[in-house]
Write the structure tokens for this entry.
Amino acid sequence: MTSTLRPDTAEGVLEAVAWAAAEERPLEIVGHGSKRGVGRPVQAEFTLDLSGLTGVTLYEPEELVLSARAGTPLAEIEALLKDNNQALAFEPMDYGPIFGAARGSGTIGGVLATNGSGPRRLKAGAARDHILGIHAVSGRGEAFKSGGRVVKNVTGYDLSKGLAGSWGTLAVVTDLTFKVLPRPESAATILIAGLDDETAIVALCQGMGTPWEVSGAAHLPEAVVSEVPDAAFAAGGKAATLVRLEGFAPSVAYRAEKLKDLFAPLGGIAILETDASEALWRSVRDAEVFEATSDPLWRVSVAPNMGPGVVEALKDLGDIRYFYDWSGGLLWIETSGEADDGLSREIRLAVAAAGGGHATLVRGSPSLRTAISPFQPQPEPLAALSKRLREQFDPRGILNPGRMN
């Protein structure tokens, strides 16, 4: 039986990790567990639960800075920012629904651990591009800090960014400071109905190549568009190609007209205004298309123009459902039933044939997540560097052991 440690202070976390390091007792690090199904199952006798480490410790809207403890619910932070017309510009995904969990159950610490981001990543970047500072405890049982509470802080190595995307395998973060930005006053989504995948990706890339500051570019094929009601209604049940604009209302209206003119030869065009646009992009951000199933779900990143080729290669191997984000550079792909190692290899071969990229198994059964490497295997030189980094931060391998292997 797994025992759970529930510290509610940074000092308690330090004490728990120092004890685990001294006793060489592996720890599974969790917040609210909304991303627990990603990566290999962690084999640990003890769970370090950070859900009691909560609270916003500093918020200065005029300075665009917010600090919070790692276990603070992301929903609480987003509500506070919304009240002040601000936001985390990288719009991190809510993983809960694709695992059948409640919405809003993720934590701000989990956002950094996963290097969270959403559709706006192609304009605003990911969590690592907005983190300003952290306090953390290494696997050695030593407390350290990096960065600070100001936007311009470049002294020494930026460990804050280095921990982004490490999935709790290097250190336990206890406190974080993020840069926040003004919430867009207005938004609009241009929807083009009925395009095939290749034509849609070309259109999205054209939109991204304009000076009209596109902040979202996605394509929902006809087979999945019905799962996104706002898009399905506007597209008449056909495939929906989506281009988002945000900013001041007059600017959004002007840019929308320019893009309508650009896309006019492609067919039927509709415009979704702010409320409908925000609901639509929440659906895209959280991969709502795949909420109602437990089938294996992959997150594949390739060059935007190579995405349709990856899809075609995989269609020959069985039934898949999919959609494109990041102007075609991100594919969410759900395979039918329990995928085996052979299909997993084929997915990664298709990615390699497309010029390289990453294929991550986001959702799968414990047996599948054990049989394959859920995260994209690294090239040998990079794997060796990652190994040395882990040995420096966590020489006894007590933090989320095996999760990323």
About this structure: Residues 96 and 103 are 6 Å apart (CA to CA). The two ends are 24 Å apart (CA to CA).
